[in-house]
Records
---
Amino acid sequence: MNAPVKTPLTMATPVAPSSTPRRALPGAEAFTNLIKAVIPPLLGIALFIGVWALIATRSEGLPGPLSTWYSALELFADPFYDNGPNDMGIGWNILHSLGRVGLGFGLAALIGIPLGFAIGRFAFLANMLSPIISLLRPVSPLAWLPIGLLVFEAAGPASIWVIFISSIWPIILNTAAGVASVPQDYLNVARVLKLSEFKVLTRILFPAVLPHLMTGIRLAIGVAWLVIVAAEMLTGGTGLGFWVWDEWNNLNVEHILIAIIIVGLVGLALEQALLLLAKRFDYAN
């Protein structure tokens, strides 16, 4: 008889643990990103309010955050009342200021953008207008107010004139710089293809200049919103600037602080709106 064959015992080979890291759950990752986005601004706001409250406790005439908050609630309970030209709600004053800024800034964009393209495109025109721009650009915005009052003989158009003349320079200079930075090879190809000036403008220059143009517009709207408050303080009538000056005459410092916050919030909203507009027309996306 043949002896039975003994089979060797086989030992199980240990399996190495997987080295692939576990992926975080989508909800947990979104929550982490939300915390990272929200916590720093909240800490900054809390720090600002804390410093404000500390200064208010040491200053006899400066209201603190809490009393200013209660005053704001009372103020915005009826923001659109109208008891005459010199007694209007805060909502009407904001709208009047925004209307003047829209008109002045719109005129500046309407004239400044084509002029910037022309200056960047044609060296002769750039050399001709460069001394004038260099002379007028450093002039303080409020220095233009007496000229506006003299020419237009009314406070409203004079304020719009100040906004226009103050905000046109960033638009012109940034647009011209963008046109001048377009590579010459692009223009040479357009010349070889015998493209019309309109096609050169729309197909080559505008997409390349858009980032510079949006930067100029953002700077211009910031200048316009900055100038309108000071102009309205001097011209009177309606608007945030006049409202701030009127509240100062009434020694209502809480309302002045509220106006400062409103000016900052509206300026921030305008800038964010322009950023969204820039993304909407971003040719890279």
Note: Confidence is low (pLDDT under 50) at residues 7-12.
---
Amino acid sequence: MNTPQDSSLGREVAYPSQYDPALLFPIPRRGAREEIGLDEAALPFVGHDRWQAYELSWLDRRGKPRVAVATISVPCTSPNLIESKSFKLYLNSLNSTRFDDDEAARHCIASDLSACAGAVVTVRFGVPVLVEDAEGQSLDGLEVAIERYGPPAPEFLSADADQLVTETLSSALLKSNCPVTGQPDWASVSIRYHGPQIDREGLLKYLVSYREHAEFHEQCVERIFSEITQRCAPQWLEVEARYTRRGGLDINPWRASPGIAHPTRTVRDLRQ
């Protein structure tokens, strides 16, 4: 089984000069999900990992460089997530590769990523629009004392069963760390739900308790979804984290209760 320690993370590597899909490194989702208590055969959510690539280039048939940005969607039902450094190295391996046209380049990228993830990955050129204001009600202005920065503390989560609401809460204070290199991962998180009203101070304390936690982006979002579900019992729930860019890539995991439609409109935060 591939583990993060087997990847190129934290190692000095030469950037590739030739196209090489073998650079892509899959990490099975199963192990981290078992730690959270999730059953791969009966996931409590639907969703995707939306990558946004800002440094993408190849050559046309005459050798003239082409540049693009792209949005990549990996289904959460794929057996593997794609390790981010390997993703960056792979994209750079396209820099000197000739394609007959842009569609040929897009198809190549989609095919290689699908093979790595073990499921159909979609690739389209372009990235979502930029928005300045956070969705829903921001938690970040709450006057609350915080002393817990890790590990994640689901005991902070609670909800008032006598108050049923539909609302969106957000915070720009989510931070976790890479489990291999220890580098910080910064994100804004949006939580939309219907059900007992979640205690806002407790939710903010809970999100900040990820600050010294080491886990991949996708796994953090699945943990947040699972622990809010267990502690607050929403009738339905959506969680999306929008992580800031590193090496020309950012990642935006989205998880939602079954039956919730995928977002028809996606956006980027100012920090992206």
Note: Residues 86 and 111 are 16 Å apart (CA to CA).
---
Amino acid sequence: MVRPQRVQIREVGPRDGFQNEPERIPTDDKVRLINALGRAGLKRIEVASFVRPDVIPQLADGVEVLSRIDVPDDVKLMVLVPNSKGLDNALKVRETFHEVAIFVSASETHNKKNVNRTVDETMADNDVMARRIVAEGLDCAAVIATSFGCPFEGKVDMGRVLDLAERFAEAGATEIGFGDTTGMCNPAYASQFFAAAVERLPGIEVTAHFHNTRGQGLANAYAALEAGCTSFESSFGELGGCPVPAGSTGNIATEDLVSMFHEMDVETGLDLRRIIEAAREAQLVLGRKLTSHSIVAGPIEWAVTAR
């Protein structure tokens, strides 16, 4: 297969990253950081989640953030909803975003611990939500967590994951993201998996979402690219993790992913310097060192221009 020469990257730090921070981040800082990401050329940003504030207090100001951010008109904003109640609440401010993500875990145990429902119960609700989202004229994206392994059940069967993906597609999802929720993927399996996913899901945007828990995130992204995947999710500063189980580290850093692609002459349309600046600013806001490499090393000079 010929390597793709252009990719899309969705920034998930303002939702997936911030939600794991123990100290409340002021709304003003969230808005400022999201605006900076929009100015870096990102066309897709996941901003908020409509979950109960007592479950994830960090995202309780999601509606205010959505109403205050000022990004270019061509930037698509995404929100995550866990269930129909969350979708009800999101649709009350429907004019503030463009895409809705729904999700399930491929692992029964992880799904139960994460949302306190079985996979079948979650998918029944997802079927209803997907159709409602499409009827509202919004883009529907589906996310399958623990697609590459579960910390409670071990290996997750590829066929089971792709069956769930097909069900999402039948319900109206036009994008399906496969999450390496606790960093259990490896490059060889990423290559095999994404080749199969791209073949089995024609017409669907297949998205890779890798965590760097065991240091293999960029290698997995490279393997997915070589297998034909052209859509990726990442988080500036390598923010993020998974609350179930504790100790799972963040997503691959957006600036590290962009740096790798630019050095390979793969176009992203992003301004690497500005993404690094946003990540460094997040480091100041959080008052601790973040773990991306590009925050420290900066870009390679011949690979810094937006492409």
Note: The chain has a mean pLDDT of 94.
